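Example record

The entry below shows one chain as it appears in the dataset: sequence first, then structure tokens.
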Amino acid sequence: MSAHQAAPTATPGPATKEQLLTPPAGARHYTLSSVAGKHGDNWAWTMPDGRTAYRMSMNLRGWITEVDALVTLGADKRPTAIAIRGFTDSGDATETFNVDASGTARWQTVVDKGSAPFAGKRYNTYGGPYLMSELDIGALVAAGDKGIDMLPSGRASITIGQAVEVTGPKGPEQVRLGFVSGYGFSPFPVWLDKDNGMFGRAGIVSLLPEGYEANGPKLKDAQDAAIAEAVRTVARTFLSPANRTPTLVDNVLMFDAVAGKYLPGRAVLIADGKVAAVGAAGSIKAPAGAVVIDGRGKTLTPGLWDSHLHIGGDDWNLLQNVATGITNFRSPGSMIDEAQSMAKRRAAGELVAPDGKVSVIVDGKNPLAAQGAETVSSLAETIAAVDRIKAAGMWGVKFYTSMTPAWIAPAAAHAKKLGLHVHGHIPAGMRPIEAVRAGYDEITHINFIMMQAMPQAVVDKANTAARLEGPAQYAKDVDLDSPAMKAFYAELAKRKTIIDPTLVVWESLMTSDGSAISPSYAPFADVSPPSVARGWRTGGYPLFGNVTRDDFRKSFAKMAGVVGKLYQAGVPIVAGTDGYGLELVRELELYQQVGMTNVQALQSATIVPARMVGMADTTGSIAPGKTADIILVEGDVSKDLGNLRHVHTVFLGGYRLDGNALRTASGLQGMPK
């Protein structure tokens, strides 16, 4: 049997890249690509024994996935045995599924195991090569409106929409857009071929047959337009005149973000999209036709800011952001056309979304370039990219890890001359203080702050997985109170350099072992689709060398501790998630754990980011004349930041939006814990 025909064998821990299947010549070949270039490959072929084999290899900016799968199909074409091996940036990808002679299905992953009657159901894998999703598409089309019951739980269905012509090695072809429901918070798009099989998927990163990659942007535009139409209908329900009548919230605990205080017994009147009046409880008379909300037992705060929310490509997620209390954002990297589309549709009342500012990523042309970035190969091209960002009306430029360090200072100077905010990852070969001295206004992610204390070998490879693996290995040994680190904090404070830590990203990667859902997501697990909740239970970043999970956890504790040291030194902190947005309250809880007060943590998600983007005159606090971007939550936030998850009402530009209705529309099935 040749190398590509070798069946999986049991190995301790995840299979290595060398142990995985090798696709034969003639295997069906799909690629993973974006406007920045190619990021990976997917193959499929038939084994001599009739099983279907899959192999996937992907490198997204140094995050590596190497997995394979062998699938046995039953007489009805349902998979009756699946074996997945390999690893992802979330850990060991090993997974098995099989149906025994009695019709009992059994499955095991690194995070769960179970059994159930197979009956008429299909197994939804925890992971595996992306191309494996083709196994379910034809069955979903055949099932029609009744859909298909899934294992371990859930129900999936597909709706089919418009046709689009694509061009590739076979010439012009018609593909049709489908939306699959039941796997996530919202329907996800997939493209079907003439036989109702999966043609591919389009997005910021597209999975398409080799030779069809150029069709990715066209297909993405078509599906984005279809999603926009669906969201427009939802928006008109929420953004109606009936929801913009005056509202009086009386006798409520109010967070004064500017003064940094919780004020009991307050009354707030909202009218014509603004805060009309603020006073003592009972002191404001409700105008005719106003809705009066009893604020007892509740807290009124400025709407939350997520300062690391990559908007674009998922209108449904924007709706969910609002449902979870996020009324404002700063996107540290969106594609220009998507940002412009969102702003236009939001202004027209066709999209329920937070309001905010957008940066665009600029990265060096490199296999490790950020997907969706403006890629450049010279200083002149960098300057031209900055000019395009300014001309498009964007707020900032975000430089990335594959940039040539020598280009940063002149490009940053040019950006600032144009009035753009300058921030980003730290280019490989630079330390964070060098980037700040070269013109950065802000540093993104706490791991890049930790690069100040990393060995040079780690710094030199910061555009690879070393940007996580270095801090994971060495951060535990860093003395956060050393003279060098104290001098670093002091210089950042003197320069008023802003830090966007995104601790929640690193907590999930570094502390998880598959035994529990990350604290970021645990409060939402019971009100989320089963497959989403299952996906949140990750095994953590793969261990390497002699580094243990305990080492990872100790290093994360140091990385979190840096946030406390920075804040104590006077460095501004803005809270962001780099995720769904659901993680934002956990980010604030982590800040409190490392020494910030409840008030200081909440300011990092209200008035501080509003000041950062120049919107503090209109948002970020509750005061007469300001835009009514406000949330009313159940419980006393002064005693527990977790109560911010218990959204009762969202005021978005003055529209009064019911929390339960928002959650339902965005795929949440109730109030989170």
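Notes for this example: The longest strand covers residues 155-168. DSSP finds 18 helices and 32 strands in the chain.
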